[in-house]
Specification:
The complex is a heterodimer of chains A (about 250) and B (about 250). Chain A is of the alpha/beta class and about 250 residues long. Chain A contains seven helices and ten strands. Chain A folds into two domains: about 170 residues, 3-Layer(aba) Sandwich (Rossmann fold), CATH 3.40.50; about 70 residues, no CATH class. Chain B has about 250 residues and is an alpha/beta fold. Chain B contains eight helices and ten strands. In chain B, helix 4 packs across helix 5. The radius of gyration of chain B is 18 Å and the shape is globular. Classes of the chains: A alpha/beta (about 250), B alpha/beta (about 250). Chains A and B meet through helix 5 and helix 7 of A and helix 6 and helix 8 of B.
Chain lengths: ~250, ~250
């Protein structure tokens, strides 16, 4: 097996007396779509923010391609739950933004931006401003912006939380298409077990605080997946049983 | 035995007149809700669902047509039509008890009697022991329980719920759906529940009314006769979910 792109070892983080992450270790393979699920309030977002050292960690190490993670050196993209398109930029300018600050060659910028806009169906809306777009369009802009930088690692924190289910699956199909075309490594955090089974190559199930990894479950269901497929339901039930508190 | 109609929407249309033009939001909407029925109004995001609820409760008036609730034409808001809001709209400066007894206290019911009533509904929604807490001290799910108790406590003819769990995470949502199911089986009421979540709709509804995208009207109805409590992953549940998703207008 190839050397994993991301290695997390003994990650520990507390806020004051509250231990949030307790000695977490795992690997992510290149091009893998990893979903992280856990019970409500288990510290998923802290997990993500510690992983990228947006928070200072107490101990442990995180490496990308064998080197300590460094937000200035590594090419990492984020998609947050809240829509984070920049209001004063058009759709196209939003998508270009990351590439511009990285001083990527103009021709390459043009080519990549056209390409991702095409995949998520934003070409027609390139000159629109965020306020002129619906919620689903806005989230597409942010996702396109993240893929345009061709990140080594893409982190997504519940990006489809507020959308209706039909729309959610439509956007998730687009996400899978982008991921398959680009080969990006994705870590996707969600509360929604069905979503994790729909998207992932592997599911990391977290425990309640202090957070540890309860189980790592490979997901080899053939794509495109169907929510009513008995194998799908079986995996969904397996993950639900590990998390269920309600 | 014929069922008693509690809500009758007859050829209801609603246009909003604005400087940027006229917006037809509801176009010839017709449906009936029967006594003690749990009806879910289901439709894509921004299809006009909330406007329909506002018309039923009398917060908005129709441009055309009429709505009859418990035999009376709706001409404005009334305590006979209770509402649970997505954003909870609790009184932040009142504790749980005062929030729940608000309706009866405005109607001049004696303190002793309304406290007894309020305590009954606080117990029903599982908030016993939190009577003196203020909304900011409660989690999102608990705040929504207060909203539900407040609506029940006023003993309205109908209770309308406008995406009450829209802001909750997927797991807390399952818990609250279970709670609504338990509450509505213990205390039978006529409930109109709005959601854009098809799982939630099938889990809760006696009947689902699928709405069209803007301008909205009834596209299709489904009677859900799966046994309760329902299993989200049973083949029948998933088949109905796929059927409704197929029939639904896209949001895009």
């Amino acid at each position: 097996m190839a050397e994993p792109i991301v290695k997390v070892r003994n990650l520990t983080k507390s806020f004051g007396d509250l231990l949030v992450l307790d000695d977490v270790s795992f690997d992510v393979q290149k091009g893998e779509f990893l979903c992280i699920v856990g019970p409500t309030g288990c510290g998923k977002t802290t997990f993500l923010n510690s992983l990228t050292k947006l928070y200072n960690i107490d101990s442990g190490s995180i490496t990308i391609n064998g080197k300590d993670i460094d937000l200035r050196q590594n090419n990492i993209a984020y998609v947050f739950q809240e829509y984070s398109a920049m209001e004063w930029l058009t759709v196209e300018q939003n998508i270009m933004y990351g590439l511009k600050i990285k001083h990527v060659d103009k021709d390459i910028i043009r080519q990549r931006v056209e390409n991702v806009m095409e995949i998520v169906g934003l070409t027609k809306y390139r000159n629109f401003y965020p306020r002129q777009l619906s919620a689903s369009m806005l989230q597409r802009v942010v996702i396109a912006r993240a893929f345009a930088v061709e990140p080594e690692l893409l982190l997504m924190d519940e990006p489809y939380g507020q959308l209706d289910l039909q729309l959610k699956y439509h956007l998730e199909d687009e996400l899978i298409k982008l991921w398959q075309k680009t080969g990006t490594t994705v870590i996707f955090i969600t509360h929604n077990i069905e979503e994790a089974v729909y998207l992932s190559d592997r599911i990391l199930v977290l425990t309640n605080k202090p957070t540890k990894i309860k189980k790592s479950i490979p997901n080899n269901l053939p794509r495109p997946r169907k929510i009513s497929d008995p194998e799908f339901v079986k995996l969904r039930n397996e993950v639900t049983d590990l998390i269920k508190w309600w | 035995m014929s069922r008693k109609a509690v809500i009758e929407c007859k050829h209801v249309s609603k246009t909003f007149y604005t400087l940027s033009g006229d917006h037809l939001v509801v176009d010839d909407l017709n449906f009936t809700v029967y006594e003690n029925e749990f009806v879910v109004l289901f439709g894509p995001g921004q299809c006009g669902k909330t406007t329909v609820l506002n018309l039923i409760t009398g917060l908005e008036l129709p441009t055309k047509g009429e709505i009859i609730v418990a035999g009376e034409k709706v001409t404005g808001p009334s305590p006979k039509r209770g509402m649970v809001y997505q954003t909870t709209n609790l009184f932040m400066w009142y504790n749980v008890m005062k929030n729940v007894e608000f309706g009866p206290s405005v109607r001049g019911i004696s303190k002793k009697e309304r406290r007894k009533k309020a305590q009954h509904y606080i117990d029903l929604v599982g908030l016993t022991g939190f009577e003196k807490h203020y909304p900011v001290q409660l989690s999102g799910g608990m705040q929504q329980r207060v909203g539900i108790a407040r609506a029940y406590c006023n003993e309205p003819d109908i209770i309308c719920m406008d995406e009450p769990f829209g802001h909750l995470d997927a797991q807390t949502r399952y818990l609250m759906e279970k709670e609504v199911e338990r509450i509505s089986s213990q205390e039978k009421r006529t409930v109109v529940f709005v959601t854009n979540n098809v799982e939630e709709a099938i889990y809760l509804a006696d009947r689902i009314i699928l709405l069209r995208n803007l301008p909205t009207s009834v596209k299709k109805e489904y009677t859900v006769d799966l046994p309760r409590p329902r299993n989200y992953v049973s083949p029948e549940f998933l088949a109905l979910r796929e059927e409704i998703t197929r029939d639904m207008d896209p949001t895009l």
